[in-house]
Write a structure and sequence with these properties.
InterPro entries: Znf_SWIM (IPR007527). The chain folds into six domains: about 5-90, no CATH class; about 95-200, no CATH class; about 210-305; about 315-415, OB fold (Dihydrolipoamide Acetyltransferase, E2P), CATH 2.40.50; about 425-570; about 575-655. Helix 2 (about 10-20) crosses helix 3 (about 20-30) and helix 3 crosses helix 4 (about 75-90). The chain is about 40% helix and about 20% strand. The protein is globular and about 90 Å long. It has about 650 residues and is an alpha+beta fold.
């Protein structure tokens, strides 16, 4: 391919991505006015005279070209050289150019992409790609729009990885370009391999100078992030997260990228920005950066460092009981279906999933896959989610994910029968709260799971009601001690069967059985979302079972449930400790939003009142941290972050169940 043909990949948009539209217009005018000409060749390198300057350019394109002018970056002379050489040989794009470019990207060795980006940036690229995007072609280039970053990356014909162009800043460029490659490969059915992830074993060392730099950046984020969120600060945090020194600290680097994303939301006035959550994330990262240098226990240190991806090892034997299955869709567009299984002997939940990444296999239907896609000796997730079975050995991750690609075959005993004697089963809600705190709260060195299934055995159930404000259907359940709580189901367009099936049971008096719920933490309360029911008919997943009452529209549900709103149960008031901690967190957010300057007299009075109340109700650690903040004589950011982390840890310990008064 000639140099002119190679440079044809640089259309106006690609050149504008390298420079800007104004420079492209000026360069085009120079060419039109005859101010550019080819003065000679040195092998494959063209020498172009452009408005008195000399440009040397080869097949690597304008980014690697040289110019005698002093302008930084891509100057108009280099752009003019491209436009001039494009006129030398007009070459029509090859037929099916998009297919050839996609084939070129899918043929790239994964290790070559990792070397291009660096390990830390490769991890960032996978996070960015998880948000999804779109791939289109211009005939000479693939245009990849990254949804989570609002960035456009171009892969140009004949220029390879190094020739990709975008408007990304130097700090983000390699991560975004690698994310674009991942998206194209996923759309073609090529996923990130497990072997490359497993090769990224995080070393045990941590650069203390790097951690000091991280803490300085986090203190700056505390002072300026919530109020101004300058682009320079966002870039600084992202640069730290993908630097070579962050390769050995995957957990911290992921947290830094999350904070950078929040600052971008603040800077762009995104409605999703939550200042309280942002300050909490900054405080958690600061606590991690403080803990890493002083952690001497190998197990604790490994937890603080984190892992790139959980590897699958052989586990077993397992005696599993199917408990539910449900479909899901990630924010970035990935979708799938997951089945849940419980092993009473080791008190542990396991999952198996069938899923497709964003842009991959557009005909994949999670509901159809649940009932028809075979795995483990021809079994389906639908059948296993209702069955009792055993594995002698199977590949599984530390988080309990079972490999769907393994050749293991289950020995099926019959239908799944859930027992009230299991450790995950409860007919007393006070014991349920203890279980969820132990499984979902976690610590700095041992982050907890985001979701924990539990089996509830209510003595009786109440009439459900719909909350217009939260758009949730609440179903009261009573334990054997007479205490009531609510399991709640949101209006999810992706799960239309949930409302129908739950209503068909909830409106029939005399339900006798168990409710399998997915427990998680939302704010300062546990959220209990029903996934399946168990009764004389066995396990019935809400996502897949047909309702026993005529199907009704969502407006019908609103009319039915709204009639009972006045007599709806009343939630218990929040404990005094939770309300006080929320008040303290709000005070710290206000200090951060004003730049962590000296605390005003009224602010000092409010902190003193909070400290006094905290002492009275037994929150001495919180009172001590806030007292130190109020007495601080120098910069406040560090003490604000310490205080906020202590408050968040205490709030997690006080997380409550959604109890009701009937």
């Amino acid at each position: 391919m000639t140099l002119a043909a190679t440079l044809m990949a640089f259309d106006e948009a690609a050149l504008a991505a390298l420079a800007n539209k104004g420079i492209v217009r000026r360069a085009a005018r120079d060419v039109e006015e005859g101010k550019a000409s080819v003065s000679g060749w040195e092998g494959e390198t063209a020498i172009v005279s452009a408005d008195g300057e000399t440009v040397r350019i080869d097949a690597r394109g304008p980014a690697k070209a040289s110019c005698t002018c002093p302008a930084p970056g891509i100057c108009r002379h280099r752009v003019a050289a491209v436009l001039l050489l494009q006129q030398q040989e007009e070459e029509a794009p090859a037929e099916n150019a998009a297919a050839s470019l996609i084939a070129e990207i899918t043929a790239l060795p994964e290790e070559a992409m990792i070397r291009f980006a660096g390990r830390a940036a490769w991890r960032a690229a996978q996070e960015i790609a998880a948000h999804g995007g779109e791939v289109s072609d211009t005939g000479t280039a693939l245009v990849i729009t990254l949804r989570g970053d609002d960035s456009e990356v171009r892969y140009l014909r004949g220029l390879g990885i190094e020739g990709m162009v975008s408007k990304a800043s130097p700090a983000r460029r390699k991560a975004l370009h690698a994310a674009a490659l991942i998206l194209v490969r996923q759309a073609a059915g090529v996923m990130v391999s497990e072997s490359s992830a497993e090769a990224e074993k995080a070393p045990a060392g941590a650069d203390e100078a790097f951690l000091t730099e991280v803490r300085d950046a986090l203190a700056d984020a505390c002072r300026n992030g919530l109020a101004l969120a300058p682009l320079m600060l966002e870039e600084r945090l992202f640069t730290l997260s993908v630097s070579s020194r962050a390769e050995s600290l995957p957990r911290l680097s992921a947290m830094l990228r999350g904070i950078a994303r929040m600052l971008r939301e603040r800077r762009t006035r995104d409605f999703r920005f939550d200042p309280d959550a942002c300050l909490g994330a900054i405080a958690a990262a600061d606590a991690l950066a403080r803990a890493l240098p002083v952690a001497s226990d190998p197990g604790r240190r490994a937890g603080l460092i984190g892992s790139v991806r959980q590897a699958y090892d052989e586990i077993g034997p397992l005696h599993l009981y199917g408990a539910s299955g449900e479909t899901w869709r990630a924010e970035g567009g990935a979708r799938g279906v997951t089945a849940y299984f419980y092993d009473p002997a080791c008190d542990r939940w396991f999952t198996a999933s069938l899923a497709r990444g964003v842009g991959q296999d557009p005909f994949f239907d999670p509901r159809h896959a649940f009932t028809s896609e075979a795995l483990w000796g021809g079994q389906t997730l639908a059948g296993l989610s209702r069955a009792e079975f055993r594995f002698d050995s199977i590949a599984g991750s530390p988080a309990g994910r079972l490999s769907a690609s393994t050749a293991s075959r289950p020995d099926i005993s019959g239908a799944s029968t859930l027992s009230p004697d299991w450790a995950c089963a409860f007919d007393r809600w006070d014991l349920l709260a203890e279980r969820l705190r132990s499984r979902l709260v976690g610590s700095l060195a041992a982050p907890a799971a985001a979701l924990e299934p539990v089996v509830l055995w209510p003595r009786r159930t109440g009439r459900p009601w719909f909350d217009d404000l939260t758009q949730q259907l609440h179903w009261p359940l009573e334990d054997r001690g007479g205490q009531w709580l609510a399991v709640s189901l949101g209006n999810d367009p992706d799960r239309p069967a949930h409302f129908d099936h739950l209503a068909s049971v909830a409106f029939r008096p005399g339900f006798s059985g168990a409710v399998i719920v997915a427990a998680s933490i939302t704010g300062t309360a546990f959220e209990l979302r029903p996934m399946a029911l168990f009764d004389e008919n066995g396990v019935r997943s809400l996502d897949f079972e047909e309702a026993r009452t005529p199907k009704r529209s969502f407006s019908d549900f609103l009319q039915t449930y709204s009639r009972h709103t006045r007599s709806a149960p009343v939630p218990y008031a929040k404990p005094a400790g939770i309300s006080l901690l929320a008040k303290a967190a709000t005070e710290l957010t206000g200090i951060s939003e004003t730049g962590c300057r000296a605390i005003s007299r009224s602010g000092s009075q409010r902190l003193a009142e909070i400290c006094a109340q905290a002492e009275r109700i037994g929150l001495g650690t919180v009172a001590g941290a806030l007292a130190q903040l109020a007495a601080a004589d120098g910069p406040l950011a560090s003490q604000v972050l310490i205080s906020r982390y202590i408050i968040d840890q205490m709030r997690a310990q006080l997380t409550t169940l959604p109890m009701l008064r009937l």
